[in-house]
């Protein structure tokens, strides 16, 4: 007979594996589908200092593996496939993957978010040729070179600080005259040697097949200036990965799945957890919290189905 899971969780980040841990501990058949490896965005950060329980910074990849093993220890399964289609209405949900079709009574959307692009004409063609979205993944490719980091949030500052230890020179280009980063990051910027270029945005990329520089525009005067560089790290926020569900689930004005603290979406038996959910703070600890909370309402829902 065809297997019907109690819970299928799409995405193996901190939200996904926290939910998997709690659901498995409730003795529910629990499957996590992950396309690459555990951790999501967290796995790309080698220094996590704000997840409770560690004296020193913890490596995101290691933490992800521990979360996965913790959930699997209680019986959760992991499948490495890409989900291609979801049918989320009705009592039995269908999850189509590159490996076949699966059925489940509940689905937890934990697909997270991906980096927002600047929207420049040559951006896509230069990806991997000087345009990058992850400093910890690609930083070493720019050892002793000059780079620009674009953005003014925590990600941009963390990336700029990380790159300042590897690269010859780092410019931080921000479109306003103040940052939206935590104080702890702002303090570290002071003696970092990073050149902050305020009130400016990147409007064009200089290239000859690979990045050679950027054209910046002053947002007040519209004056243009050129900066020679080998790499441009884009750190201007993230976009919720809702392509699979946007026609079935209600999204908020920013494109995140609309769900309150219960993590319940507009469809019965479908939950949104982690960075993909509308919420005021996207952190590992709030993602993990979503996973645990969802398990309570998954359990309530499954009990009602009987
Ligand atoms: P964010 O906080 O949304 O900041 C995005 C930054 O990019 C803003 O400064 C924004 O400018 C700028 N921006 C947006 N679109 C732009 C465009 N088209 N061109 C130029 N600049 C643009 O995003 P984030 O830094 O990725 O952080 C996301 C979440 O992760 C936040 O909640 C953050 O606290 C968290 N995070 C935490 C840590 C940590 O605590 N260790 C590290 C990284 C991220 P404006 O300021 O003008 O809007």
Report a brief summary of the structure.
This is Thioredoxin reductase. This protein is α/β, with parallel strands linked by helices and 306 residues long.
CATH homology superfamily of the largest domain: FAD/NAD(P)-binding domain
Task: Supply the CATH class of the largest domain.
Answer: Alpha Beta
Which CATH architecture of the largest domain would you pick?
3-Layer(bba) Sandwich
Low-confidence stretches: none
Task: State the CATH topology of the largest domain.
Answer: FAD/NAD(P)-binding domain
Estimate the global geometry from the Cα principal axes.
Answer: elongated
N-to-C SSE string, H for helix and E for strand: EHEHEEEEEEHEHEHEEEEEEEH
User: Ligands in the structure?
Assistant: NADP nicotinamide-adenine-dinucleotide phosphate
What's the total count of β strands?
17
Mean pLDDT, to the nearest integer, reads 96
Estimated share of beta-strand residues = 25-35%
Q: Which structural class do you get from the secondary structure elements?
A: alpha/beta
The biggest beta sheet is recorded as: 7 strands, mixed
Tally of structural domains: 2
If you compute it from the alpha carbons, what radius of gyration comes out, rounded to the nearest whole angstrom? 21 Å
| N- and C-termini, Cα separation | 19 Å
Number of helices: 6
Helix content: 10-25%
